[in-house]
Design a protein that fits this description.
Blueprint: E1 10-15, H1 32-44, E2 47-53, E3 64-71, E4 77-84, H2 92-97, E5 108-112, H3 119-135, E6 140-143, E7 155-158, E8 162-164, H4 169-180, E9 189-192, H5 197-210, E10 218-226, E11 229-236, E12 243-252, E13 256-257, E14 265-266, E15 269-278, E16 291-292
Parallel strand pairs: 1-2, 5-6
Antiparallel strand pairs: 1-3, 2-6, 3-4, 5-7, 7-8, 8-9, 10-11, 10-16, 11-12, 12-15, 13-14
């Protein structure tokens, strides 16, 4: 499961209380020009567009909400929220994608419950959505497909960009409670969306070895690749382990069913930790050896 968080820094949320098409926002029957504008702006910003709703779906009438959430290189989290009643109102999102957004808002907790995309997401996601909504009603939204159906129930904290998987009602409350307290645990962690799979795997290995830490307590200082092997240098803020090198190996798992709905057998890439050691004792790359990406 570790190393499977899709890469991304910008999220667009659109509250939609009706039934969700299998392909989410793409399948909505919206005013064509507005939909095309939003789709083009999101693609340019490399933003992921998700439909969201409160648990239970059937909420009182009135305008729906939308949001643009952004994770910056500095680690700052920015959000901009608005409302919509007519399809044309969603054009506001285009302007929001070009604006900086506000600092200081609490994070948003997304639970994938997209049953039309894959049955697992509904069967496993909705009990998690219920449990989290009862605990944090203002923070939690159910959402469309976030990737990794086989890891359902999936929870994504945005704009933190942290994916958790393999959750149930009890473990999801514990994971989110710890996350909101500034402690990310390796258990159930799929990865950070600003990192690539081997880097996600390295950070998770450090958390597993040295204990939970804040979202920004560890940083990637270097990445070296030699074929299907990676060496990831991870630095930590005191009192964390300060300079580590994590060895990671990538390989394809035997073909198996990757989703509840999909009948085809597929082979997924798995990232395995082979070593965690002090970077001071690690051997430097040999001349003509691994390259730095």
């Amino acid at each position: 499961m570790v190393g499977t968080a899709p890469h991304g820094r910008v999220w667009v949320l659109v509250e939609y209380r009706g039934g969700w098409p299998p392909d989410g926002f793409d399948g909505l029957d919206l005013e064509p020009r507005t939909k095309a504008l939003l789709f083009s702006a999101a693609r340019q910003a490399r933003a992921r567009v998700l439909l969201v709703r409160r648990h239970g779906r059937r909420t009182p009438g009135g305008p729906g909400r939308w949001a643009v959430l952004r994770y910056e290189d500095s680690g700052a989290y920015r959000q901009q929220w608005g409302t919509w009643s007519r399809d044309e109102d969603l054009a506001q999102i285009v302007d929001a994608l070009g604006a900086p957004g506000e600092l200081g808002r609490p994070p948003v907790v997304l639970v994938c419950a997209h049953g039309q995309h894959d049955t697992c997401c509904a069967v496993r996601g909705r009990p998690v959505g219920r449990a989290l909504s009862e605990r944090w009603p203002s923070l939690v939204w159910e959402c469309t497909h976030v990737g990794g159906d086989r890891f359902a129930a999936n929870v994504v904290v945005v704009p933190d960009g942290v994916y958790y998987g393999g959750l149930d009602a009890s473990s999801s409350v514990a994971a989110v409670e710890e996350h909101l307290a500034g402690r990310v645990h390796a258990e159930h962690l799929r990865g950070y969306t600003d990192l690539f799979p081997p880097q996600q795997t390295a950070v998770a290995a450090v958390l597993a070895r040295f204990g939970p830490a804040g979202r920004h307590d560890y940083a990637i200082a270097g990445t070296t690749r030699d074929g299907d092997h990676w060496r990831i240098r991870v630095t930590g803020r005191p009192p964390r382990a300060t300079d580590l090198e994590v060895g990671v190996r990538a390989f394809r798992a035997p073909p198996h069913q990757l989703t509840c709905r999909g009948r085809a057998m597929s082979s997924a890439v798995v990232h395995e930790v082979v070593s965690v050691r002090s970077a001071r004792t690690a051997n430097p790359p040999e001349a003509g050896g691994p390259r730095t990406d």
